[in-house]
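During the reporting period the student researcher (J.K.) took over the structure-prediction task from the postdoctoral fellow and processed the backlog of single-chain submissions. One of the processed entries is reproduced below for the supervisory committee.
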Amino acid sequence: MQRRRFLTASAATAAATILPIARTRADAGAAAYAADIDFLLAEFEKQAGHFFELKKIDWPAVTKEFRESVKGVASDVSHLKLCQQLTARLKDGHAGIIQSKITLPDESAGRRWTGPRVHLLTAGDKVLIRTAFKDAEAAGLKSGQEVTAIDGIPAREWLAAKVAKMRDTEGYSTDHQALFSACHWGLADWEGTRIAFSIRDADGTEKTVFRTRNGGPNFAPFGPVFPPEALRNIGRQNYAPTKSGPGYIHLRDVPGDLEKQLDAILAELADAPGLILDLRANGGGGCDHAAVFGRFVPKGKFYDRYEGVAEKPYTGNMVVIIDAGVRSAGETVAGMFKETRRALTIGDSPTAGMSSSKTTVAVPSGLLTVRFSVFSNMARYNKGKGIEGLGIPPHQTIPYRAEDLIAGKDTLIAAAESLLQKGFPSDEVDYVPPDRGK
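J.K. obtained the following structure tokens:
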């Protein structure tokens, strides 16, 4: 016979006391979570609402979504994730949670987050392999091949789904920045996971190549596809003369001493018959922008608002190469050359469009602090619209060509060399090089 167990009077009293306390604490937590969401909704609209039309953000719909979603939040971790999602709705590449008292669970199981050693790019409706590194190349993946499907899904559809997933938790200031990121960071996953690329070669041959993500930070973009030979470097900047004659500089970042780095580089390239300034994948930073631009104006002379300040400046014709990987301070540098019509800018897309002044707010619960953009940098750019949410569009949009990549040629560097030889359209560049002693 099964014995029935009864609570003693004291135990029953304790249980009756604990249950209301637990409910009270849960109610207090739910109220705090809701208050945090309401606070962020109000602050984002008050301080960043002027971006909503530009970025096509339906804030009433966002408000409805998150006021409903917070009702289901029952833990600090879920609350942190919901706040991340709300911050991502700002479509702001600089926005994010910068301080948190909440620790997310470790999902790595000891694995690294890594890529398949492949970078992609889009050219019209096509997806091409931009770069295949080492063992990916050995497996049969080559620059210029068309990617028709990824994991059995048409390649553009796969990228669109990846963009949607990434934008759910991370901020991207423009659609082209998000797509660019999907072609690099979007390919990454936990080490040991597999990804399948369905490939069509130039001769029409089709195949599927499986890659196992196998370690290393190989999912970050790095700039030129095929840089000139014999590059030298100063800091993260690389430079060399090209075979056709013009000088070539790739600026990977914008450090505080960039003008000094440029002095050393231009000491070798100042007399080149044309200069290619490649900003692709420039991750930004911070510098004296006027001093940087002053390295490309004759000393003691003014061009637009900038004075030439270098002992050995570069004063010839220039082509500036950009892409959606150019961010923040890198966009300011690109914009200076375009807005002043000092150089011709080319690229397969505008820059990232994430260049802004930021602020931070702490939520009422004190659990986390959020940073987000409140004003666009360089408000005079883009006819008074600034950079944030737009980027710097090139004078000439030049998509990559599969045949160039297959031949080991960087489409944009080749285009820059050709433009320097032929000359620029007068309606795009005003600058006239001074007599350089020739």
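The committee noted the following: Residues 1-7, 21-25 have pLDDT under 50 and may be disordered.
J.K. will present the remaining backlog at the next meeting.
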